[in-house]
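Hey,
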Amino acid sequence: MPRLGIVDWNRREDFAPLMLVMSGEEKHRLVRSLGEVADALIIGWPTDDGQHYIAAVKTCLDAIHGNIPAHIARAALIRAAEEAGIAVIAVVH
């Protein structure tokens, strides 16, 4: 696959938004871009282990570097959320 180049991680046009229902201070976390995926995984995630969590972090980094499309990182985030017991709600925009 050809390299896309580093992308704008705050670009929302290429990313279907979703809501993570988490515990803690920020119970509902809206994710609308790769930057928000990275923020959720690195800062807001309840644990720092798990096969799908680690894969989601790597996939997000690959998407930020333009190696894969944003929707693949979104799918990886959903798998990591399922692994961690975090509910995911699709957001209509």
